[in-house]
Automatic annotation (TrEMBL):
Coiled coil: none annotated. InterPro entries: Arylsulfate_ST (IPR053143), Arylsulfotransferase_bact (IPR010262). Keywords: Membrane, Transmembrane, Transmembrane helix. PANTHER family: ASST-DOMAIN-CONTAINING PROTEIN, PQQ ENZYME REPEAT PROTEIN-RELATED. It comes from the Bacteria. This is Aryl-sulfate sulfotransferase. It holds the Pfam family Arylsulfotrans. The lineage of its organism: Bacteria, Pseudomonadati, Bacteroidota, Sphingobacteriia, Sphingobacteriales. The chain crosses the membrane at residues 7-23.
Amino acid sequence: MRILKIVIGALVIAVLYACYYFYSQYVQLVNIQLSSPDNSAIKEDIHVKLNRPAAAYVEYWSANGEHYYTPVKGEKKDHIFNLLMLDADTDYHYRIVLDRLIPVKSKVMRFKTRKQSPWMVHDWIKEEHPHDPRAMGDGLTMLCYREFPGYIAMVDGKGAIKWYWQDEKMGVRIASLTPRGTILALLAPVGKDEFYKPEPNKAFVKSGMGYSLRTGKMGYMGGTELAEIDLTGRVRWRLNVDKLGLIVHHDLRMDKANHIVAVVRDYILPEKQTGKPIDTLWGDGIVVMDTTGKVLKKWSTWDHWDLAKDRRLDSLKHDRFHINTISFDKDSNYLVSSPIENQVWKINAQTGKTMWRLGQGGDFQLDASDFFYFQHAPHINKDGDLMLFDNGDFSPRDSSTANKKSRALSFSLDEKRKTASKKLDVPLPGKQYTARMGSAYLLPNGNVLQTSSKTGSVLISDKQGNVLWELNTYFIPYRAEYVPAKFWQDYVKMKPD
């Protein structure tokens, strides 16, 4: 009896082993190839060939790092896994995992990333400046380099570039995140801006502006091409808007329908309308187009502006509104920034009607201390409030260099009663005052990310303005936008699906 039990037990073990062997060997690795796309030091592609179709993913880790996982690829013989946001000059271990009821793991293999390209090596973080890497949380900050060669870079809290895309011929004016997990960029040849200081004239000075902001057809921060780039660095499409007769500038976004919504230059010849000897007036508009360049809709400031009541037309004929932002309100209508008017406007996306104006001389009740001047980057933050970067230029408090201040502001708006309650007022240090450009965003951890463009600084502070972290750039960043960790969920995971 005892011998029989032993025989039966041995048979059971043999059957189980045979089943597991068949289970684990039914799908086999035929070939593995590694490549570094664009010769990048911070990404690796792993091409896996199987003998039979099977779902699979890759687990990978550095010597002292956490384990990361690619998303599971569906059942097929050939898989390409994109490993992104790697560290340069670093040893990595990895294994292929067949996604079965009981996961089947390959042996552990390794590769080493190459050294970072010399042009990407920069002292982003200075020891003498605040540099607590925890201030940013687990996201990244995205900046654009508008000179040649132009690039988009995402930097982490330690000052390391974790992702970048470079163009061979163009500068990158601005970039924004899209709803479908890609990046939308505005490109232009270097030196394309048309910008100069005109001869002094009493009318111009009386208008309250110290110099012309932009002139000519292209103006300032204008671009000639649009491109959509996925996180592997692949360009999904590229469009020459210059050939379409469009001058896109300052900002562009993708809406939920995957259409491009962009700020454009727009002009009128007002002599016929007013009878006054005024030259061509340059203003702004918004266009909605598909990714082939077909214009679906256009809105112009001039269609909603009373020329007869405007006393500043001649002095500001080169750049009457200087619209520098397009973003979406919670109801998908547009928020635009007119810094010359010191106002944020809400535009009905369907009718083009101006729904309200926030700021000095606008529709909302505001204390004078809450007025903003030459603002940038208004948007709806994570708390549902309207947030913006107040440059502070031409404000009553900028009578001397010592009094010039820039800050982040946010307001809770009651659109029916037209009241605005200030929620955030986060000043930049006086030395980081910036008359032009800039941005401010509320991070998921409650800290505030601000860009002081003219000083080449990106800062994170608490809500009281105490600086916790500072990024030192070697160029003038138009803005630094926050990239949340979830933006990478289709490529990088902290645990298997």
